[in-house]
Amino acid sequence: MTETTMTGGRLRIEARNLTKRFGDITAVDDLGFTVEPGRITGFLGPNGAGKTTTMRMMIGHITPTSGSVTIGGKRYHELADPSATVGAVFDAASFHPDHSARDHLRVYAAMGGHPDGRVDELLSLMDLTGAARRRTRGFSTGMRQRLNLATALLGDPRVLLLDEPSNGLDPAGTAWLRSFLRHLAGEGRTVLISSHVLGEIQQVADDVVVIRQGRMVAAAPLAELSGTAPAVLVHSPDAEAVARMLVQQPFAGYETRVERIGPEQLRVWGPDPASLADLAAAHRLRIHGLTPEEPDLERLFLDLTGSMR
Ligand SMILES: Nc1ncnc2c1ncn2[C@@H]1O[C@H](COP(=O)(O)OP(=O)(O)OP(=O)(O)O)[C@@H](O)[C@H]1O
């Protein structure tokens, strides 16, 4: 991958008591979180949770009703050179259908006061050199996403905000985006990506901020959240008795939680499969299958956000 360059320091995004109301709708409700430089932060929440509104407040498109969000301690409009500090990509970004990729970038470079040479650099970085002269009307979703990203990177920003960047990307495009974002974070940049599908960012984010109906649900390193949800699937004709036994069993070190997921199936958090099998045997209960589940963040996410999918 071609080197990107970065001058200047590392910038933290900080939201404090951030609130936005549209008439009767409270889209963002008293949010407080930080997004650290040098890391990729996933901003998660079901549709309508308030992610886009929050990100648009970061770049001054929307004015908070109360509270604040700052970048390196400053509100967006207080930044010395906003477009060289923050690059943002929103889903709705559109291109003039008759413009070529190069035309598009040149227009934005001129508007942002960025050198024209940046255009060819970015076309190459985004693997769009071959399509530089083609009209954007014929671009695939992946090409559009890359052109969006190129537009956001024109000013070599230290902070990158991407709203649903994986939308419409195929697996190769998603893998490319992942390694590209990792590269940018590795240079000390601050990378925030939103998604309503946890799986999309599960493999890329270092930290996650989860919101629901505009409110904070969780903010933590991804590894910490994953660590909270190990589970074992238990298949047993004595499922009810196994569940009762587990809940009543006061055994050390485990905090046991049992979910009944079918007449003969349980999901159990706490004991590992071997301990579970031993316990069931000691109580003369039949176990027909024990399957350890991967730390299931998607489940945790659904539990946290209460969303139905
Ligand atoms: N300009 C507006 N006027 C009125 N309501 C708005 C406006 N913008 C957003 N909302 C409402 O605010 C809430 C949050 O919307 P927002 O787009 O920020 O959510 P989101 O998490 O980005 O959702 P999605 O994943 O669907 O993009 C929604 O109820 C939405 O309808």
Automatic annotation (TrEMBL):
One of its GO terms (molecular function) is ATP binding. It comes from the Bacteria. PROSITE patterns: ABC_TRANSPORTER_2. It holds the Pfam family ABC_tran. InterPro entries: AAA+_ATPase, ABC_transporter-like_ATP-bd, P-loop_NTPase. Gene3D superfamilies: P-loop containing nucleotide triphosphate hydrolases. Residues 13-238 form the ABC transporter domain. Keywords: ATP-binding, Nucleotide-binding, Transport. Belongs to the ABC transporter superfamily. This is ABC transporter ATP-binding protein. It comes from Actinocorallia libanotica.
